[in-house]
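Design a sequence for this backbone.
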């Protein structure tokens, strides 16, 4: 999924939704306001997984918000979304599926069909 917003923009929007200043958020996270500002402006990458989880619990009110938060943080850090590696590494079938999809260059259309089928079976 591609986003038209940066991680920093997302943080600003979410903290404004809950009427929280950058300074207040920094205090809640026990980081400096300057560091918080640097992250919001994209001058610093998103921080540790632990701090990300704390921030997510403060800012995100829905599953969709959380997914976007993790994805944008990963894009900023040039890594995999921090909510996924443990699940991937604990499940051999997931790793196998991802490798086969990568090797066979599975299209977005096929992934969408797979997801729809998976959701249909769990509903």
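Sequence:
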């Amino acid at each position: 999924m591609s986003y038209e917003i940066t991680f920093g923009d997302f943080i600003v929007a979410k903290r404004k939704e809950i009427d929280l200043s950058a300074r207040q958020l920094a205090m809640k996270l026990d980081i400096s306001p300057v560091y918080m500002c640097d992250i919001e402006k994209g001058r610093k990458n998103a921080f540790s997984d632990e701090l990300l989880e704390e921030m997510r619990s403060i800012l995100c009110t829905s599953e969709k918000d959380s997914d976007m938060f993790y994805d944008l943080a990963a894009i900023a850090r040039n890594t995999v979304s921090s909510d996924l590696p443990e699940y991937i590494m604990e499940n051999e079938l997931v790793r196998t599926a991802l490798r086969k999809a990568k090797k066979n260059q599975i299209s977005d259309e096929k992934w969408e069909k797979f997801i729809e089928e998976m959701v249909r079976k769990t509903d």
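The mean pLDDT is 91.
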